[in-house]
Amino acid sequence: MRRFLLFFGKRLIFVFPQLFGIMLVSFLLLQLIPGDPAVLMAGPFATPKVLETLRIDLGLDKSVAEQFLIYFKNVLRGDLGNSWQTTRPVTEDLLQRFPATLELIILSLTLALSIGVPLGRAGARLKTGFTRKVADYYGLFAGALPDFWLALVFIYIFYSVYSLVPAPLGRLDFMIIPPQIVTGSLLIDSILDLNFQAFKNSVGHLVLPVLTLGLINAGPILKMTQATMERMLEEDFSKYAELCGLPDKVIAKKAFRNSLPSVITIVSVLFGFLIGGAVLVEIVFSWGGAGQYAVNGVLNADFNPVLGFVLISALFSLVIYLIVDLLYFYIDPRTH
Amino acid sequence: MGTDATGMDIFSRVLFAPRVDLAIALFGTSLSAILGVFLGAIAGYYEGHGRLLGFGSALIMRSADVIQAFPVFVFAIAVVAVIGQSVQSLVLAIAFVNTPIYLRLMRSQCLSIRGMRYVESSMVSGTGDLLIIIKHIIPNSIAPILAQLSVNIGWAILLTSALSFIGAGVEAPTPEWGSMISMGFQNIVTGHWWPSIFPGLALAFTVLGFALVGSSVEILSDPIRTKKLLMSRPLVGKPT
Fold first, then answer.
1. What is d(CA B198, CA B124) in angstroms, rounded to the nearest whole number?
2. Cα separation of A64 and A311, whole Å?
3. Domains and CATH numbers, chain B
4. CA separation, residue A303 to residues A87, A210, A310, B79, B124 (Å)
């Protein structure tokens, strides 16, 4: 246990300089974006005097270094500034939108894992045959499909033609009373609120985006599982087990246990990627997630949401990597 | 294949789109490969050196870390936003996002080749650093780079069309798969599937093609696997 704490502490020290670096670079990068927020805020007919006072209000008259210092101090207090598009504090906006994205990503990755891992395992064990073919082709096709297109195909089939799911607009129908917000995840909140109508409806809204992201992200998980598992089955310990006459099932189980670290790695990479990468599917389903918020920010020279988004998603990625390192520590006895 | 909402012919636009898509993807990935190979070779060759060169190598790697810490898609949009929306800025955005991938690949190749006997003997006999990099290190590490290049062109096409889909890429009258899909996006709910489905299919098959080329290059660059492949019935695109 002491070793574990030591390991954890050492890992934690690196998180802070990393976060600071990300903050600095994203701040500088966004300084380069042309477009004057004051002009965009006040509209095209504003007088120069109004613009001037607005600039002073926003702190745009100060030097870049000063601006960064102010920003840094505010972030430490949990204040990410205001978005001029929604005229609300970015922290509030993100707190509302991140759970939507996270709910989507977590469910999608669960689906992707439940497709990718068994198929990859089966593909690695078999050299020929139908399942092997399915695994090989699936890995290739899943990586080639654009997710926003697949989402449209699903909408066409399941909504336009068969009307099996509610309209692909947001997370809940307009007529449904939303549950009390506790965690931000509609599924959990509606159960806590015993609002089963909302639960049913939000499940209906989740099905298609989760299916889209799950099917596509199962590809990399499958490839990784299959490749590592194949390597493990060629290792000496597998050959030894085979020579000892252990049944195939047991050998496969051992080999899978040893390929777990790379499966965990690919899941963490996908998670980090999806926080920003799910934005296309979010747009198609008008999900109102965090990625969509950031993209609108970039397109409209609204800097604070973008900075806030980058910072929080970086924070999430770093936390995920931290958890992954702890998991490695747990499953790999050599690190003890 | 019919026409879209504005009456433009979908078939001819789907056929014309690769001129834009492929050009952007090819230029973008080639640029990033050249940059990445160059920087990666330097970072790998001088890693662990004292003073300025070692510092330069560390600096290159840490900058790559920072670039990769950003969400790829938001970063690409930001790059396009910084330099203005045009074909050239898409090329630059793709080059920027992909460079760290080649950089890392080249560096790890370089680190393993640097320790080889022929490189060491070359160093001992007084060959200049630059000549060693050009003569020995780059030619010997080119195979995985080429395999990566092919896969990456596929990704770059996906990224270009994704950027165009949200309106930060190629603009409307120019035929481009992503923007075509987005033009059909509003009408798919009412059952008009053809303006979106066909460009998406073209996109998917193009990316698939590049992925297949990539996995073949990888197999062919490994003599043992090439032999295995020639002996047995070829397994189509064995993913690795």
1. 60
2. 19
3. 14-232 (1.10.3720.10)
4. 13, 30, 11, 14, 54
Q: Which residues of A touch B166 (CB under 8 A)?
A: 279-280, 283, 295, 299
The complex scores an ipTM of 0.78
A146·B154 Cβ contact <8 A: no
- Amino acid identity, position A229: M
Q: Is the Cβ–Cβ distance between A134 and B202 less than 8 Å?
A: no
The answer to whether the beta carbons of residues A272 and A61 sit under 8 Å apart is no
Q: Which residues are paired to B3 by β-bridges?
A: B9
A221 touches A117 (CB < 8 A): yes
List, for residues A174-202, the tens digit of each pLDDT value. Answer: 777 777 777 777 778 887 777 778 888 88
DSSP, res A82: E
At position B235, the amino acid (one-letter code) is L
Beta pairing partners, A88: A83
Amino acid occupying residue B207: V
CB B181 within 8 A of CB B170: no
Contact list, A21 vs chain B (CB under 8 Å): 66, 69
The whole-model pTM stands at 0.81
Burial environment of residue B80 by CB neighbours within 10 A (0 to 12, 13 to 18, 19 or more):
buried
What is the β-pairing status of strands A88-89 and A82-83?
antiparallel
Q: Which domains can be identified in chain A, with CATH numbers?
A: 8-77 (no CATH), 93-291 (1.10.3720)
Task: Evaluate whether B55 touches B124 at the Cβ level (below 8 Å).
Answer: no
The distance from CA B31 to its chain's CA centroid, rounded to whole angstroms, is 9
Q: At what angle do helices B177-185 and B142-165 cross, to 10 degrees?
A: 30
Structural contact between residues B14 and B77, judged by C-beta atoms closer than 8 angstroms: no
Taking an 8 Å cut-off on Cβ atoms, the answer to whether A223 and B161 are in contact is no
How does pLDDT run across A50-73, given as a tens digit for each residue?
777 877 777 777 777 888 888 888
Task: Inform me whether the C-beta atom of residue B233 falls under 8 Å from chain A C-beta atoms.
Answer: no
User: Cα(A165)–Cα(A162) distance, rounded to whole angstroms?
Assistant: 8
Chain A hits for B70, CB-CB cut-off 8 Å, are: 22, 25-26, 276, 310, 314
Q: Cβ–Cβ of A160/B191 closer than 8 Å?
A: yes
